[in-house]
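debug: dumping io for the single-chain case to check the tokenizer round-trip. Nothing else runs in this session.
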Amino acid sequence: MVESDIRYYRRRANEELAAANRAVTDAARQRRLKLVDLYVGHLKALEAPNPFAEEQSAFAWRNGSRARN
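debug: decoded output
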């Protein structure tokens, strides 16, 4: 089975963001964040939703319904 481009870019962006959070040096963190930007750019080109957008966040949901601000 081959994963779709959107799924691949979303997965890689999440992996790189996690790696940036674990990075020991600022230079390593910056390299990882550049890769996150690259993958998010690919998602935008495919007109896929940004996985890091506030309205897409799982934290915006409560009890199975959208949280009201």
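debug: round-trip ok. Confidence is low (pLDDT under 50) at residues 65-69.
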